[in-house]
Amino acid sequence: MNRIVLGILLGLLFGVIDVLLMIPLSFPTANDKRVAMTGAFFDRFAIGVLIGTSVFPFAPWLQGIIVSVLVSLPSAIIARNYVPILSISVIGGAILGYLIGLWGV
Q: Which domain holds residue 32?
C-alpha cells in the first residue's frame, strides 16, 4: 500500500485509540475535555501522516519514535504531563513506523 495512504489510515486509527484512552479521564469542564480530546486526536493523526511521508536512514520503528516525540513534545510541555503523553506517543510511533515500513511501498 502507498506509504502516505497507509500513514493517513494508521494516523486516524492511532487518533481514535488515543481519544478512547482519554474517555475515563476527568477534566475541570466538559469543554476542556472536548478540546483536549480533539487536540490529542490531531496530534496522533499528524504522527501517522508524517511517518508515512518521511524517509529517514534509520529502522522504521526508530523513525516512528523520532517523529512521534517531535510532534508530541510541545503538547507534553504545555500540559506538563510528560509521562503519559510521551509514553503513548513513543509506543504508538514505534508501532506505526514498523507497520508503515512493513506494508508501505
A: 3-103
pLDDT in tens, 22-57: 999 999 999 999 999 999 999 999 999 999 999 999
- Give the per-residue SS3 of the chain: CCHHHHHHHHHHHHHHHHHHHHCCCCCCCHHHHHHHHHHHHHHHHHHHHHHHHCCCCCCHHHHHHHHHHHHHHHHHHHHCCHHHHHHHHHHHHHHHHHHHHHHCC
Asked whether the whole model's pTM tops 0.85, one would answer: yes
Instruction: List Cα–Cα distances, 34 to 1, 30, 47, 86, in angstroms.
Output: 33, 6, 20, 20
Integer Cα distance of 81 and 85 in angstroms: 7
What pLDDT score does 23 carry?
94
Q: How confident is the model at residue 67 (pLDDT cuts 50, 70, 90)?
A: very high
Count of domains in the chain? Answer: 1
Q: What is the chain's length?
A: 105
